[in-house]
Design brief:
This protein is an alpha/beta fold. It has two domains: 16-444, Up-down Bundle (Amino acid/polyamine transporter I); 457-625, no CATH class. Helices cover 60% and strands 10% of the residues. The chain has 26 helices and eight strands. The strands form two sheets. Strands 5-6-4-3-7-8 form a six-stranded mixed β-sheet. A two-stranded antiparallel ribbon has the order 1-2. A hairpin with a 2-residue loop joins strand 5 and strand 6 (536-544). The longest helix has 33 residues, at 101-133. The radius of gyration is 27 Å and the shape is elongated.
Length: 626
C-alpha cells in the first residue's frame, strides 16, 4: 500500500525508512564501480583524461538514468501507486487499450524482465559483501585467506535470519544508511580537498570528448560505469511501499550528492597517485578509520542485500498471484503487512546460488563481470514498456519521442557494453533468467490447458440447482464451501463429493478467487455475490496482485452483502488434480509436460495460499488428461 506522505510530519520518517530499503544497492556501488571502470574489461590507463572522462560518464549516468528517467518519467507509470516490472506488465493487460501484437510482445518481454531480476538477486549480496570485506586486505595481507570464508559466513547468517522477518531490523536500516551516505560524502570531500580541480569533470564535455577520441575504449568502460545505476529498478519497484515524494527527497537531498562527492573524491585520490586505483574507496579514509569503515561498509552491504532479497520475495509473490509461477509456501512475518514475507524455497535457492557465485568468481572484481547484464536488459524492457503505457495514456507524442531519443540509445549502449561481459560472467544471470522464464511459460501454458479441460467438462450451475430438489441427495446441516477455479459452472469437486457421499450440506457456497492484474481492488468490487438457488450461492473474491489473499477474513464481510452464514464452522472442499498427458511424438512437448506435471505435484498447498484452516479442509482428487 502506498504510504500517505502528504503531511510534512509523515514525509520525514517515510523518507528515512525509504533510505533503509530503497537505496542500499545503489548506495554501495562506490565500493567497486569507479575502480572497475579502470581495472575491468577496458583495462583503462590511469590518465587525467580517462579519470575526467569516467567521472563525467558516472555523473551524467546518475542524472539521466536515475534522476530523469526513473524519478521523473518511469515512476509516472504506476499501477494504483505500485511500481516495478510486474506492475508495468499488469498495466499493459488492464489499463492500456488495444489488442495489438506489439503489446503482447511487450507483455512477454516484461515477464522476461521479471525473470532477469532473480539473477540480480543472487549477484548483489555476493558482490556487495565481498567488496566490503576485501578492505581487510588493506589492513594486513594475513586477512586475505579469510575474506571468502567470512563472506560466506555473513551470507549464511543473512539468509538464515530471513524467516524472522525484517520489520524490527528495518527500523534501524534508515539511520544506518544516513550514517553511510554521510561518511561517503565526508570521504569524498577529503579526496576533493587534495585535488579541487577534479570538479571540472562535472561537465558532460569530458564524457563526450572521451567517447569521440576513444570510442571503442569508452564503449567498454560503459559496461562498468553502468554499475553506478544498477539500483534504479529498486527505486521503481519500491515506490508502492513509500510513495514517490520520499524517494525523490532522499535521492536529491542526500543520496545523489553523497554518491557524486565520493566518486569525485576517489577520482581526486587516483589523480594524485594512480597506484591508488586498486582500492580507491578505502584509501580515501585515514589509516585510523579503516577498520571502522570496513565494518560500516559490511553493514551497508548486508542492508543492500536484504533489500534485494526482500524484493525477490515480493516479485515471486506477485508472479504467483498472477499465475505466472506455481504456488509456494509464503510465511507472513509481520501480521498483515504485505511486504513482510518469507518464501523458504526462494530463500535457500538464493543462498545456494550466492555462495556458488562467491566460490566461482572469488573476488568482487571478477563478479563485476557478471553484474550488470541482467539489469541492463531489464532497463531496456522497462523503457519500452513505460513509453508504450504513457503513450496510450495520452502523453504528448512530441515529448515521448524526445524521451525515446534520449533513453533508448543510452539503454542499448549500456546493454551492448554489458553483452561483451557475457563470457566473463554475464552468462550467469542470463541462464537464470532463461530458466525462470521457461518455467513461467510452461506453468502458464499448462494451467491454461488444464482450465480449458476442466471447463470443457463442467455442468451449468442453473441446470444443477434445478435438478437438486428432485434428486435423492441427502441435505446435511451446516455450510460447505467449494473452492473453484471457474467463474461459472459447478466445480468437479462438488460433483465428486455427491457421487461418493450421496449427500450435500444445507448451505452451499461456490467460491471463486480471482487475482486481477491490478495492484489493489476497490472495496466495492472485492466481493461479488450471486444467488443460484435456495441456499445455493456463488461468491467471487477479487484481489489485486499486491494484496494478501485471506479467504476466512473476507468471508466475514459477506454478511454485509446479505450472505449471513456460520463460516466459522464451515467445511472447505478443494479439488486436487492428477494430470496425465496424451502421447506426443514431440520431444520438447514431452519434456514440457513432464516439467509441468512435476511443478503441479509440488506446488504449495492451497490451504496456505488461501489462508484456510487445514483442519476444516476436505480434498477430493480427480484425474484429468490433457
Amino acid at each position: 500500500m502506498t504510504t500517505d506522505t502528504k503531511s510534512p510530519e509523515k514525509l520525514l520518517p517515510t523518507t528515512l525508512a525509504a533510505l533503509g530499503i530503497v537505496f542500499g544497492d545503489i548506495g554501495t556501488s562506490p565500493l567497486y564501480a569507479f575502480r572497475e571502470s579502470f581495472l575491468g574489461l577496458a583495462h583503462l590507463d590511469v590518465t587525467q583524461a580517462h579519470i575526467f572522462g569516467v567521472l563525467s560518464m558516472i555523473t551524467w549516468s546518475l542524472i539521466i538514468v536515475i534522476s530523469i528517467k526513473y524519478l521523473l518519467v518511469v515512476m509516472r507509470a504506476d499501477n494504483e501507486g505500485e511500481g516495478g516490472i510486474i506492475a508495468l506488465v499488469s498495466l499493459l493487460q488492464t489499463k492500456v487499450s488495444g489488442t495489438s501484437r506489439f503489446r503482447h510482445i511487450l507483455v512477454v518481454a516484461g515477464l522476461f524482465g521479471a525473470a532477469l531480476l532473480y539473477g540480480d538477486g543472487a549477484i548483489t549480496p555476493a558482490i556487495s559483501v565481498l567488496s566490503a570485506l576485501e578492505g581487510l586486505e588493506l589492513v594486513t595481507a594475513a586477512f586475505t585467506p579469510f575474506v571468502i570464508p567470512m563472506t560466506i559466513g555473513i551470507l549464511i547468517g543473512l539468509f538464515s535470519i530471513q524467516r524472522f522477518g525484517t520489520a524490527k531490523i528495518g527500523r534501524v536500516f534508515g539511520p544506518i544508511l544516513v550514517v553511510w551516505f554521510t561518511v561517503l560524502a565526508l570521504l569524498g570531500m577529503r579526496g576533493i580537498w587534495m585535488e579541487p580541480g577534479i570538479l571540472v569533470a562535472l561537465s558532460p564535455s569530458w564524457a563526450i570528448q572521451f567517447m569521440l577520441s576513444e570510442p571503442t575504449t569508452a564503449f567498454l568502460v560503459m559496461g562498468t560505469v553502468f554499475l553506478v545505476v544498477t539500483g534504479g529498478e529498486t527505486l521503481y519497484a519500491d515506490m508502492g511501499h513509500f510513495g514517490v515524494k520520499p524517494i525523490k527527497l532522499a535521492w536529491f537531498a542526500l543520496v545523489l550528492p553523497a554518491l557524486l562527492l565520493n566518486y569525485f573524491g576517489q577520482g581526486a585520490l587516483v589523480l594524485s597517485d594512480n597506484q591508488e586505483i586498486a582500492q580507491p574507496f578505502f584509501h580515501l579514509a585515514p589509516e585510523w578509520a579503516l577498520i571502522p569503515l570496513i565494518i560500516l561498509a559490511t553493514i551497508a552491504t548486508v542492508i543492500a542485500s536484504q533489500a534485494v532479497i526482500s524484493g525477490v520475495f515480493s516479485l515471486t509473490r506477485q508472479a504467483m498471484q498472477l499465475g505466472q509461477l506455481p504456488r509456494m509456501a509464503v510465511v507472513q512475518t509481520d501480521g498483515e503487512e504485505f511486504g513482510q514475507i518469507y518464501i523458504p524455497f526462494v530463500n535457500w535457492m538464493l543462498l545456494f546460488a550466492t555462495i556458488g557465485l562467491v566460490l566461482l568468481f572469488r573476488s568482487s572484481g571478477n563478479l563485476a563481470s557478471a553484474y550488470g547484464l541482467a539489469i541492463a536488459m531489464d532497463m531496456v524492457i522497462t523503457t519500452f514498456l513505460t513509453l508504450f503505457v504513457l503513450g496510450r495514456w495520452g502523453w504528448n507524442k512530441a515529448l515521448l519521442v524526445g524521451l525515446a531519443i534520449i533513453f533508448i540509445p543510452l539503454d542499448f549502449a549500456y546493454f551492448g557494453a554489458n553483452i561483451l561481459k557475457f563470457f566473463d560472467g554475464g552468462w550467469f544471470p542470463t541462464i537464470v533468467a532463461v530458466f525462470i522464464f521457461t518455467l513461467m511459460t510452461i506453468w502458464t501454458q499448462g494451467r491454461k490447458k488444464l482450465r480449458e479441460q476442466v471447463k470443457h467438462g463442467e455442468m451449468e450451475a442453473s441446470q444443477f440447482v434445478k435438478r437438486l430438489p428432485s434428486s435423492s441427495i441427502i441435505r446435511a446441516p451446516g455450510t460447505a464451501i467449494f473452492m473453484t477455479s471457474l467463474s461459472k459452472g459447478v466445480p468437479t469437486s462438488l460433483l465428486h463429493h455427491i457421487k461418493h457421499n450421496r449427500s450435500l450440506h444445507q448451505h452451499v457456497v461456490l467460491l471463486h478467487v480471482e487475482i486481477r492484474p491490478t495492484a489493489k481492488i476497490a472495496r466495492k468490487d472485492q466481493i461479488i455475490l450471486e444467488t443460484l438457488g435456495p441456499d445455493f450461492y456463488r461468491v467471487t473474491f477479487n484481489y489485486g496482485f499486491n494484496e494478501r489473499v485471506n479467504v476466512p477474513q473476507r468471508l466475514k464481510r459477506c454478511k454485509i452483502k446479505g450472505l449471513d452464514l456460520d463460516f466459522d464452522k464451515a467445511s472447505y472442499f478443494l479439488g486436487r488434480e492428477t494430470i496425465t498427458f496424451k502421447r506426443s511424438g514431440n520431444l520438447i512437448r514431452a519434456i514440457s509436460n513432464s516439467i509441468f506435471s512435476f511443478l503441479n505435484r509440488n506446488a504449495g498447498r492451497a490451504t496456505l495460499f488461501y489462508g484456510i484452516p487445514p483442519n476444516r479442509v476436505v480434498e477430493l482428487g480427480s484425474q484429468i488428461e490433457i
